[in-house]
Amino acid sequence: MIGRGPRRTAAPEGLRAAGFPVAPAGNVRWPPHALRRQDRGPPASGCPTAGDAGKDDTTMVYRWLAPLLLLCLGLPGRADEIVVGQSLPLSGPLGEAGRNVKDGIDAYLARVQREGLLGRHKLVWRALDDGYSVERHTQNIRQLVVQDKVDALGLSAGTSHIDAAYPTMREAGTPLIGAMTGASALHGAQRALIYHLRASYADEVRQLVAQAVSVRQRRVFAVWQDDGLGRDAFAALEIALRGAGIELVGQQGVALAQMDGAALAASVRAARPDALFALCVTPCGVKLLSGLAAESGVARPTPYMLSIVNGEVLAKSVGPAARGTVISQVMPNPRLATSPLVQRYQQDMRSHMGRDEFSYFSLEGYVVAMVTVEAARMALAASPRRSMQDAMKLMLRREIEGIPVSSGDDPGVRPHPVTLSMIGNGGRLIH
């Protein structure tokens, strides 16, 4: 709050130039346009004018004056910045993947800052940890959208998480740029505010089943996470197996917190499959492979897993038992610098991390930041400024470094790619 100014004080030249009243010489309080208590509020024009001079100045009310000074002098504010909010698991069962994502985002934002890619404009990125909890994720999104009024949301993880938070996004018209899930429920026209940079689980499952067919595997056991992720992927698997003529010899839904890896492994062995589809997150895969490894000398089915699984963490956690696991991937190989995108990613990750530490998850974060910055540039360049939702609609007609953008009501310019990797000797991913 600006208090009553001293007597005989001249107005600053900046205020004079902006059209504010100027204090004349003599015993005149500054500013001369006081408000009576019953008249609280700014003048109709929004800025103080010379016509306000001479009003009764017995009660000075200035609470609104400070922000108006900034507005009328054209000082920088929210009009020159884009604020992006994000809720992702930085702790909990997907904590390492979430931290990798954030490293990739930070690496690209450091490039934006270093090279001035947004000119005089500013992009603010606010990340909140949800611990892979649906309740915390929903609370975070409400805080970011309703209280902080962010312009857009960045990459979130979890089918059930995003689905639960979507009503808040829809009410405010706030877009989500990137979803670390491929569930079909989030690809429909009723979820048009979600912009996808990765393939659907159905696309991933079809590629995995095609691989099983190519090596003549005919008996499949499926373990699926009993939530939006697992149910969606399992439904896609049943369709793909029927189309390929492969028998589903067993299946079991699991709750991650109560999962008994040893008991589940016993059920798998009893069904004698030659392929095991684990449609769940990394900790589920770790428990399952650890349970299978506990009994030596028994033939083990080939494990197949989705891109949501962190292959490096899986290999580190279960050791040689992870070898041969096939994982679908929805981003380019982060270790193969054969494209300008991956070359810049590696360069920026080295600069940000101080070491060669590359992963599919940090590359996905890097790509999300890259797309978000491009949308921000398009929004800020327009006059009047576009919303981030309008900017993202324009992005549907483009590819960003070979990465297509799609939404629930627009498939984009081409399908999202899916490739396969396999955990080899020493825990290295082979492509």
UniProtKB/TrEMBL annotation:
Keyword Signal: yes
Residue ranges, annotated region (Disordered): 29-53
Protein name: Leucine-binding protein domain-containing protein
Keyword set, alphabetical order: Signal
CDD domains for this protein: PBP1_ABC_ligand_binding-like
Protein's UniProt keywords contain Signal: yes
InterPro entries with a match to the protein in the record: Leu-bd, Peripla_BP_I
Family, per entry: Belongs to the leucine-binding protein family.
Domain Leucine-binding protein: 81-392
